[in-house]
Amino acid sequence: MKKDALREYFSIPNILSYFRLILIPVYLVVYFNADDERGYYWAALVIVISGLTDMLDGKIARHFNMITEWGKIIDPIADKLTMASVALSLAFRFPLMGLVFVLYVVKEGFMAVMGVVMLRRGFRMDGAMWYGKVCTAVTYAVVFLLLIVPMMAAWLRITLICVQLGITLFSFIMYAAFYRRAWVNMKKKA
Predict the structure, then answer these.
(1) Cα-flanking dihedrals φ and ψ of residue 36, to 5°?
(2) Spelled out in words, what is the top-level CATH class assigned to the domain 3-189?
(3) How far apart, in whole angstroms, are the C-alpha atoms of residue 120 and residue 49?
(4) Rg for the chain, CA atoms, rounded
């Protein structure tokens, strides 16, 4: 393998993204085998490690100039698969999380389609917008709380999930508006 290919696919940030992908089945096994609070703590620890490596890979990539085209693809894929897996797994215990999962899939599906359409027209997005980052942070926080406090009061659990739903919907609306503005601007320039 050539040195450039090694650098493209096996940079430290990309290895961290691969590690996050490996953590998905680890999380699922730990979560579905949890039969007490301790088991859910272990599942929460896996999610914390995933979240920390997500933050770390971006910082390393920017600080050490290790940003690669492959990294721009694999990092968000690892993010999306992690969040979808966690939301779906939690829906087995907390049915309202099923709605979070559906909304998340619709939002991410829309963004994937729009990203491809816009990319074909020469538009490149420079990473996640602030509202996308807020959505990710809130999702990690809610998921973490649901895992470390598995017997929390129903009203609190429902409130947290509704906050997550609201932030996810807000993020979806903001991204839809962003893509609409980008589309209109591209039409004006054409």
Answers:
(1) -155, 180
(2) mainly alpha
(3) 35
(4) 18
CA 66 to chain centre: 21
Question: CA distances (Å), 16 to each of 13, 19, 78, in order?
Answer: 5, 5, 10
Q: Tell me: the pLDDT tens digits for 82-118?
A: 999 999 999 999 999 999 999 999 999 998 898 888 8
Place of tokens 């896996």: 46
Domain boundaries, the chain: 3-189
- What are 82's two structure tokens? 């992690």
What single letter denotes the amino acid at residue 163? V
The structure's pTM equals 0.86
- pLDDT value, residue 94: 94
Tokens of residue 40, six digits: 């859910």
CA-to-CA separations, 77 to 67, 70, 109, in angstroms, rounded: 16, 11, 12
> Which one, of 96, 112, 19, 107, lies nearest residue 57 by Cα?
19
The number of residues making up the chain comes to 190
